Amino acid sequence: MEAPNGDPGQQVPGDGIAAYDLPKRIATYDADMDIMHPNRDHMLRVAVGLLPFPREQDFLALDLGVGTGCFSQLVLEVFPNARIIAIDGAASMLEIAAVRLDAFQGRVEFRTGDFRDLEAVIAPSERGKLVISSFALHHLDRNEKVEAVARCTSFLEPGGWFLNADLVRSDSPILRNRYQELRVQGIMQRAEDSDPRFRTSEQTHSFLEAMEAREGDQPLAAAEDLEILQVAGLKQTGIAWMEHREAVMAGTRHPALAGNPSGGGGL
Predict the structure, then answer these.
(1) What is the tens place of the pLDDT at every residue in 237-250?
(2) Could you say which of 3.40.50.150, 3.40.605.10, 3.40.50.300, 3.50.30.10 is the CATH number of the domain covering 17-168+219-257?
(3) What's the CA angle centered on 98, arms 92 and 104, to 5 degrees?
(4) pTM exceeds 0.70 for this model
(5) What are the residue ranges in the chain where pLDDT is below 50?
C-alpha cells in the first residue's frame, strides 16, 4: 500500500508462497467474469473509445476499483504515455492487478483505499485527465456515490473525463424480473453444465442472490446515476451504451470538450 505522496510506480507485490498462484487467480476471476458479465470487454472498449485525447498524450488517470486491472490495461495499451493510480479496497485484488499490469511497471501506482474515504488515498494536489471505474461503484449507496464521484471530479483537470462501466437497475419490476431471467439463462448457457454452481436455474438464482447480498450490491436506475454525475459536478453526461442491467456512462469536468476530436483513442 502506498500513501498519496508515495513514490510513483510502486508495486504491491504478492509475497511468500501464495504469490505463485496469482496468474491462476486472474484466470479464475476472468473466467467467472466471462460467465457473469459477457459484455465486459465490449463495455470497456466503448468507454475508452469515447476519449478524444491524442494517442501520444501524457496524462494521469485514476482507476477507482481496479480489480484485476482490465480497464487500466486497456487505457495503458491505447495511450502509451498514460499513467494510472490504481485504487482498490482489497489488497489481494491489487496483487492480482499488479501481475496483470506487470508489463506497465513505472506507469502504475497501486493504493489500497476505501471509496468512501478517497481523501485518505488521493492528495488534494494530485490532478489528472481521466477517472475510470468498472463494476465497482454499485456497491455504494446514493449518498456515498455522490461523495465519491465529487472527489473524483475534483481530481479531474478541466476537460477531464469520467467513465463508468457498471450495473444499473430498472424501475420496472416486470423488466427487472425479465432481465434476471435472461441473466440466469445466459449464465447457464455459458457455463455449459461444467460449473456445479449453475447447473439449474434454482442453483443459479440462489448463487446470484447470495453473491449480491454478500457483496452489498445496490445498483441504481440509469437516470439516477446520471443525476449523481451531474450533482457531483460533471457536465456533458450521458449513456454511451446500455443493455438490460449494464451501462457505460460518461461525463466531463468542463462543459467544453477537451482534446482533438479527430485524434481520439477510438478502438
Answers:
(1) 999 999 999 999 99
(2) 3.40.50.150
(3) 165
(4) yes
(5) 1-20, 257-267
